[in-house]
Specification:
Length: 327
Amino acid sequence: MAPVNVTVTGAAGQIGYALLFRIASGHLLGPDTKVNLRLLEIPQAVKAAEGTAMELDDCAFPLLSGIEITDDAKKAFDGVNVALLVGARPRTKGMERGDLLEANGGIFKPQGEAINAGAASDVRVLVVGNPANTNALIASAHAPDVPRERFTAMTRLDHNRALSQLAAKVGCAVTDIKKMTIWGNHSATQYPDLFNAEVNGQSAASVVNDEAWLADTYIPTVAKRGAAIIEARGASSAASAANAALNHVHDWVNGTAEGDWTSMAIPSDGSYGVPEGLISSFPVTCSGGEYSIVQGLEINEFSRARIDASVAELVEERDAVKALGLI
Ligand code: NDP
Protein backbone atom coordinates (compact mmCIF):
# COMPACT_ATOMS: atom_id res chain seq x y z
CA MET A 1 0.00 0.00 0.00
CA ALA A 2 1.29 3.48 -0.89
CA PRO A 3 2.19 5.66 2.08
CA VAL A 4 -0.47 8.10 3.25
CA ASN A 5 0.43 11.78 2.87
CA VAL A 6 -0.08 13.59 6.15
CA THR A 7 0.37 17.37 6.24
CA VAL A 8 0.88 19.16 9.55
CA THR A 9 0.79 22.96 9.66
CA GLY A 10 2.49 24.82 12.49
CA ALA A 11 4.80 21.84 12.63
CA ALA A 12 7.47 23.63 14.64
CA GLY A 13 5.03 24.59 17.39
CA GLN A 14 4.39 22.91 20.71
CA ILE A 15 1.50 20.75 19.54
CA GLY A 16 3.41 19.89 16.37
CA TYR A 17 6.32 18.63 18.44
CA ALA A 18 4.03 16.40 20.48
CA LEU A 19 2.18 15.22 17.39
CA LEU A 20 4.75 14.36 14.74
CA PHE A 21 6.56 11.57 16.58
CA ARG A 22 3.32 9.80 17.34
CA ILE A 23 2.08 10.10 13.75
CA ALA A 24 5.37 8.58 12.61
CA SER A 25 5.07 5.74 15.10
CA GLY A 26 1.61 4.70 13.91
CA HIS A 27 -0.76 6.37 16.36
CA LEU A 28 -2.64 8.30 13.69
CA LEU A 29 -3.51 5.60 11.17
CA GLY A 30 -2.49 2.37 12.86
CA PRO A 31 0.58 0.14 12.97
CA ASP A 32 0.38 -1.07 9.36
CA THR A 33 0.14 2.24 7.52
CA LYS A 34 3.23 4.04 6.24
CA VAL A 35 3.18 7.82 6.23
CA ASN A 36 4.86 10.63 4.33
CA LEU A 37 5.02 13.72 6.49
CA ARG A 38 4.69 17.20 5.00
CA LEU A 39 5.53 19.96 7.42
CA LEU A 40 4.19 23.44 6.66
CA GLU A 41 5.56 26.41 8.55
CA ILE A 42 5.88 30.14 8.15
CA PRO A 43 9.32 31.09 6.73
CA GLN A 44 10.82 32.11 10.08
CA ALA A 45 9.94 28.74 11.63
CA VAL A 46 11.15 26.51 8.79
CA LYS A 47 14.56 26.08 10.40
CA ALA A 48 13.00 24.87 13.65
CA ALA A 49 10.84 22.44 11.65
CA GLU A 50 14.03 21.16 10.01
CA GLY A 51 15.39 20.46 13.48
CA THR A 52 12.30 18.44 14.33
CA ALA A 53 12.67 16.56 11.05
CA MET A 54 16.27 15.69 11.99
CA GLU A 55 14.98 14.20 15.24
CA LEU A 56 12.31 12.27 13.34
CA ASP A 57 15.07 10.85 11.12
CA ASP A 58 17.00 9.88 14.22
CA CYS A 59 14.10 7.80 15.47
CA ALA A 60 14.36 5.55 12.37
CA PHE A 61 10.61 4.96 12.51
CA PRO A 62 9.77 1.95 10.33
CA LEU A 63 6.49 3.55 9.20
CA LEU A 64 7.97 6.90 8.18
CA SER A 65 8.56 6.92 4.42
CA GLY A 66 9.61 10.53 4.01
CA ILE A 67 9.54 14.07 5.35
CA GLU A 68 9.22 17.29 3.38
CA ILE A 69 9.39 20.76 4.90
CA THR A 70 8.02 23.82 3.17
CA ASP A 71 6.58 27.29 3.66
CA ASP A 72 4.47 26.90 0.51
CA ALA A 73 0.91 25.71 1.15
CA LYS A 74 0.50 24.52 -2.45
CA LYS A 75 3.43 22.13 -2.04
CA ALA A 76 2.41 21.06 1.44
CA PHE A 77 -1.11 20.03 0.40
CA ASP A 78 -0.31 18.51 -3.00
CA GLY A 79 -1.67 14.96 -2.84
CA VAL A 80 -2.53 15.25 0.87
CA ASN A 81 -4.73 12.55 2.38
CA VAL A 82 -4.85 13.78 5.97
CA ALA A 83 -4.39 17.48 6.79
CA LEU A 84 -3.87 18.56 10.39
CA LEU A 85 -4.18 22.33 10.53
CA VAL A 86 -2.48 23.22 13.80
CA GLY A 87 -0.76 26.54 13.08
CA ALA A 88 -2.96 29.54 13.77
CA ARG A 89 -2.73 33.09 14.98
CA PRO A 90 -3.23 33.07 18.73
CA ARG A 91 -5.12 35.88 20.40
CA THR A 92 -2.68 38.34 21.91
CA LYS A 93 -3.36 40.89 24.60
CA GLY A 94 -5.62 43.69 23.50
CA MET A 95 -6.53 41.96 20.23
CA GLU A 96 -10.14 42.37 19.17
CA ARG A 97 -12.09 39.36 17.98
CA GLY A 98 -12.40 40.88 14.49
CA ASP A 99 -8.59 41.19 14.26
CA LEU A 100 -8.18 37.59 15.40
CA LEU A 101 -10.66 36.31 12.84
CA GLU A 102 -9.08 38.41 10.11
CA ALA A 103 -5.56 37.19 10.94
CA ASN A 104 -6.79 33.60 10.83
CA GLY A 105 -8.63 34.27 7.59
CA GLY A 106 -5.22 35.15 6.15
CA ILE A 107 -4.01 31.67 7.12
CA PHE A 108 -7.02 29.42 6.51
CA LYS A 109 -8.23 30.96 3.22
CA PRO A 110 -5.01 30.18 1.29
CA GLN A 111 -4.80 26.78 2.98
CA GLY A 112 -8.37 26.00 1.87
CA GLU A 113 -7.45 27.07 -1.67
CA ALA A 114 -4.33 24.91 -1.65
CA ILE A 115 -6.30 21.91 -0.41
CA ASN A 116 -8.86 22.53 -3.14
CA ALA A 117 -6.14 22.72 -5.76
CA GLY A 118 -4.06 19.72 -4.85
CA ALA A 119 -5.48 17.40 -2.22
CA ALA A 120 -6.13 13.72 -2.87
CA SER A 121 -9.77 12.83 -3.51
CA ASP A 122 -10.07 11.18 -0.09
CA VAL A 123 -8.64 14.14 1.85
CA ARG A 124 -9.72 14.53 5.48
CA VAL A 125 -9.05 17.78 7.29
CA LEU A 126 -8.86 18.39 11.02
CA VAL A 127 -8.51 21.97 12.26
CA VAL A 128 -6.85 22.32 15.67
CA GLY A 129 -5.72 25.97 15.51
CA ASN A 130 -8.15 28.33 17.24
CA PRO A 131 -10.81 29.52 16.75
CA ALA A 132 -10.96 26.01 15.33
CA ASN A 133 -14.62 25.72 14.29
CA THR A 134 -14.61 28.99 12.41
CA ASN A 135 -11.15 28.42 10.93
CA ALA A 136 -12.51 25.15 9.52
CA LEU A 137 -15.48 27.05 8.08
CA ILE A 138 -13.12 29.50 6.36
CA ALA A 139 -10.91 26.75 4.90
CA SER A 140 -13.95 24.81 3.69
CA ALA A 141 -15.45 27.90 2.04
CA HIS A 142 -12.31 28.17 -0.10
CA ALA A 143 -12.29 24.52 -1.11
CA PRO A 144 -15.52 24.26 -3.10
CA ASP A 145 -14.45 21.06 -4.87
CA VAL A 146 -13.83 19.17 -1.63
CA PRO A 147 -16.98 17.77 0.00
CA ARG A 148 -17.60 20.00 2.99
CA GLU A 149 -17.99 16.96 5.30
CA ARG A 150 -14.22 16.53 4.99
CA PHE A 151 -13.58 19.69 7.02
CA THR A 152 -13.78 19.08 10.74
CA ALA A 153 -12.58 20.79 13.91
CA MET A 154 -11.34 19.34 17.15
CA THR A 155 -13.45 18.96 20.27
CA ARG A 156 -11.90 15.63 21.17
CA LEU A 157 -9.67 17.16 23.82
CA ASP A 158 -12.78 18.61 25.48
CA HIS A 159 -14.38 15.17 25.16
CA ASN A 160 -11.38 13.47 26.79
CA ARG A 161 -11.32 16.07 29.55
CA ALA A 162 -15.03 15.47 30.14
CA LEU A 163 -14.34 11.73 30.50
CA SER A 164 -11.50 12.14 32.95
CA GLN A 165 -13.29 14.72 35.13
CA LEU A 166 -16.38 12.50 35.33
CA ALA A 167 -14.31 9.41 36.12
CA ALA A 168 -12.63 11.29 38.97
CA LYS A 169 -15.98 12.43 40.38
CA VAL A 170 -17.72 9.05 40.37
CA GLY A 171 -14.60 6.96 41.03
CA CYS A 172 -14.79 4.84 37.89
CA ALA A 173 -12.36 4.11 35.08
CA VAL A 174 -12.60 6.24 31.94
CA THR A 175 -13.39 3.02 30.08
CA ASP A 176 -16.56 2.61 32.20
CA ILE A 177 -17.93 5.78 30.56
CA LYS A 178 -19.65 5.65 27.17
CA LYS A 179 -21.62 8.02 24.96
CA MET A 180 -20.02 11.26 26.11
CA THR A 181 -20.86 14.27 23.95
CA ILE A 182 -19.41 17.74 23.61
CA TRP A 183 -21.89 20.02 21.85
CA GLY A 184 -21.19 23.32 20.11
CA ASN A 185 -18.07 25.42 19.88
CA HIS A 186 -14.53 24.59 21.04
CA SER A 187 -14.61 27.51 23.44
CA ALA A 188 -15.74 28.31 26.96
CA THR A 189 -19.38 27.88 25.82
CA GLN A 190 -18.95 24.21 24.88
CA TYR A 191 -21.39 21.86 26.56
CA PRO A 192 -20.37 18.42 27.89
CA ASP A 193 -23.62 16.41 28.12
CA LEU A 194 -23.96 13.99 31.03
CA PHE A 195 -27.65 13.31 30.37
CA ASN A 196 -26.88 11.12 27.39
CA ALA A 197 -23.55 9.78 28.73
CA GLU A 198 -23.46 6.48 30.59
CA VAL A 199 -21.42 5.12 33.49
CA ASN A 200 -21.48 1.34 33.39
CA GLY A 201 -24.71 1.51 31.40
CA GLN A 202 -26.51 3.95 33.70
CA SER A 203 -27.25 7.61 32.93
CA ALA A 204 -24.19 9.60 34.05
CA ALA A 205 -26.39 12.48 35.22
CA SER A 206 -28.33 10.19 37.54
CA VAL A 207 -25.16 8.50 38.83
CA VAL A 208 -23.83 11.97 39.71
CA ASN A 209 -27.25 13.13 40.89
CA ASP A 210 -26.09 16.66 41.64
CA GLU A 211 -27.25 19.30 39.18
CA ALA A 212 -25.47 22.09 41.06
CA TRP A 213 -22.13 20.26 40.70
CA LEU A 214 -22.88 19.71 37.05
CA ALA A 215 -23.70 23.36 36.37
CA ASP A 216 -21.23 25.07 38.69
CA THR A 217 -18.25 22.74 38.81
CA TYR A 218 -18.19 20.12 36.06
CA ILE A 219 -19.09 22.16 33.01
CA PRO A 220 -16.79 25.11 33.85
CA THR A 221 -13.94 22.77 34.86
CA VAL A 222 -14.07 21.00 31.50
CA ALA A 223 -14.50 24.24 29.56
CA LYS A 224 -11.72 26.10 31.39
CA ARG A 225 -9.25 23.26 31.70
CA GLY A 226 -6.97 24.84 29.09
CA ALA A 227 -6.57 27.98 31.22
CA ALA A 228 -5.92 25.84 34.34
CA ILE A 229 -3.13 24.03 32.49
CA ILE A 230 -1.53 27.30 31.39
CA GLU A 231 -1.68 28.46 35.01
CA ALA A 232 -0.03 25.26 36.31
CA ARG A 233 2.42 24.54 33.54
CA GLY A 234 3.26 28.02 32.39
CA ALA A 235 2.48 26.91 28.84
CA SER A 236 -0.64 25.76 27.05
CA SER A 237 -1.58 22.14 26.73
CA ALA A 238 0.31 20.50 23.91
CA ALA A 239 0.68 16.73 24.45
CA SER A 240 -3.00 16.31 25.33
CA ALA A 241 -4.06 18.41 22.34
CA ALA A 242 -1.84 16.32 20.07
CA ASN A 243 -3.24 13.13 21.59
CA ALA A 244 -6.79 14.31 20.92
CA ALA A 245 -5.94 15.12 17.29
CA LEU A 246 -4.62 11.57 16.88
CA ASN A 247 -7.79 10.15 18.50
CA HIS A 248 -10.03 12.25 16.20
CA VAL A 249 -8.43 11.13 12.96
CA HIS A 250 -7.87 7.56 14.12
CA ASP A 251 -11.55 7.11 14.94
CA TRP A 252 -12.71 8.89 11.77
CA VAL A 253 -10.60 6.52 9.64
CA ASN A 254 -10.83 3.33 11.68
CA GLY A 255 -14.27 3.67 13.28
CA THR A 256 -15.71 4.17 16.76
CA ALA A 257 -16.26 1.23 19.10
CA GLU A 258 -19.57 -0.64 18.99
CA GLY A 259 -21.99 0.81 21.53
CA ASP A 260 -20.09 4.06 21.90
CA TRP A 261 -19.63 7.36 20.10
CA THR A 262 -17.28 10.32 20.11
CA SER A 263 -17.41 14.10 19.66
CA MET A 264 -16.35 15.87 16.48
CA ALA A 265 -17.05 19.39 15.24
CA ILE A 266 -18.51 18.84 11.76
CA PRO A 267 -20.70 20.76 9.31
CA SER A 268 -24.23 20.66 10.66
CA ASP A 269 -26.94 19.04 8.57
CA GLY A 270 -29.52 20.82 10.71
CA SER A 271 -29.70 18.06 13.33
CA TYR A 272 -30.69 19.09 16.86
CA GLY A 273 -31.64 22.57 15.64
CA VAL A 274 -28.04 23.55 14.80
CA PRO A 275 -28.17 25.75 11.68
CA GLU A 276 -27.10 23.89 8.58
CA GLY A 277 -23.49 24.47 7.55
CA LEU A 278 -22.16 25.66 10.92
CA ILE A 279 -19.19 23.62 12.11
CA SER A 280 -20.44 22.52 15.49
CA SER A 281 -19.62 19.61 17.78
CA PHE A 282 -21.98 16.63 17.75
CA PRO A 283 -22.07 13.05 18.99
CA VAL A 284 -20.89 10.94 16.04
CA THR A 285 -20.22 7.34 15.21
CA CYS A 286 -17.64 6.52 12.55
CA SER A 287 -17.58 3.54 10.24
CA GLY A 288 -15.98 2.84 6.86
CA GLY A 289 -14.10 6.15 7.02
CA GLU A 290 -17.26 8.24 7.42
CA TYR A 291 -18.95 9.80 10.38
CA SER A 292 -22.64 10.19 11.09
CA ILE A 293 -24.45 12.20 13.72
CA VAL A 294 -26.11 10.10 16.42
CA GLN A 295 -29.82 10.80 16.03
CA GLY A 296 -32.77 10.68 18.37
CA LEU A 297 -31.10 11.78 21.61
CA GLU A 298 -33.27 13.46 24.16
CA ILE A 299 -32.28 17.06 24.79
CA ASN A 300 -33.74 18.32 28.05
CA GLU A 301 -34.19 21.98 28.97
CA PHE A 302 -30.85 22.17 30.81
CA SER A 303 -29.02 20.88 27.73
CA ARG A 304 -31.08 22.87 25.23
CA ALA A 305 -30.18 26.22 26.81
CA ARG A 306 -26.48 25.40 26.81
CA ILE A 307 -26.36 23.98 23.30
CA ASP A 308 -28.25 27.03 22.03
CA ALA A 309 -25.81 29.41 23.74
CA SER A 310 -22.78 27.72 22.20
CA VAL A 311 -24.40 27.56 18.78
CA ALA A 312 -25.33 31.26 19.05
CA GLU A 313 -21.62 32.00 19.54
CA LEU A 314 -20.81 30.02 16.40
CA VAL A 315 -23.46 31.97 14.47
CA GLU A 316 -21.84 35.21 15.65
CA GLU A 317 -18.39 34.02 14.56
CA ARG A 318 -19.77 32.95 11.19
CA ASP A 319 -21.49 36.30 10.70
CA ALA A 320 -18.30 38.12 11.66
CA VAL A 321 -16.16 36.25 9.11
CA LYS A 322 -18.89 36.76 6.52
CA ALA A 323 -18.86 40.51 7.21
CA LEU A 324 -15.06 40.46 6.78
CA GLY A 325 -15.50 38.77 3.40
CA LEU A 326 -13.64 35.65 4.57
CA ILE A 327 -16.39 33.22 3.59
P1 NDP B 1 0.64 25.45 19.72
O1 NDP B 1 1.26 24.40 18.90
O2 NDP B 1 0.68 25.32 21.21
O3 NDP B 1 -0.89 25.68 19.31
C1 NDP B 1 -1.27 25.76 17.96
C2 NDP B 1 -2.72 26.09 17.83
O4 NDP B 1 -3.52 25.06 18.41
C3 NDP B 1 -3.15 27.39 18.53
O5 NDP B 1 -4.04 28.08 17.65
C4 NDP B 1 -3.89 26.90 19.74
O6 NDP B 1 -4.93 27.81 20.10
C5 NDP B 1 -4.53 25.66 19.19
N1 NDP B 1 -5.10 24.76 20.18
C6 NDP B 1 -6.28 24.12 20.03
N2 NDP B 1 -6.58 23.40 21.07
C7 NDP B 1 -5.60 23.58 21.94
C8 NDP B 1 -5.36 23.11 23.23
N3 NDP B 1 -6.21 22.34 23.84
N4 NDP B 1 -4.23 23.45 23.85
C9 NDP B 1 -3.37 24.27 23.24
N5 NDP B 1 -3.55 24.76 22.02
C10 NDP B 1 -4.66 24.44 21.38
O7 NDP B 1 1.23 26.88 19.33
P2 NDP B 1 2.73 27.33 19.08
O8 NDP B 1 2.68 28.81 19.16
O9 NDP B 1 3.71 26.53 19.87
O10 NDP B 1 2.97 26.91 17.58
C11 NDP B 1 2.24 27.40 16.51
C12 NDP B 1 3.09 27.20 15.28
O11 NDP B 1 2.28 27.49 14.17
C13 NDP B 1 4.31 28.12 15.22
O12 NDP B 1 5.44 27.33 14.92
C14 NDP B 1 3.98 29.05 14.05
O13 NDP B 1 5.12 29.38 13.29
C15 NDP B 1 3.06 28.16 13.24
N6 NDP B 1 2.16 28.78 12.29
C16 NDP B 1 2.14 28.18 11.06
C17 NDP B 1 1.32 28.65 10.09
C18 NDP B 1 1.37 27.97 8.78
O14 NDP B 1 1.80 26.84 8.70
N7 NDP B 1 0.92 28.62 7.72
C19 NDP B 1 0.44 29.79 10.31
C20 NDP B 1 0.48 30.30 11.66
C21 NDP B 1 1.32 29.80 12.61
P3 NDP B 1 -4.79 28.82 21.34
O15 NDP B 1 -3.68 29.76 20.99
O16 NDP B 1 -6.13 29.45 21.41
O17 NDP B 1 -4.47 27.96 22.54
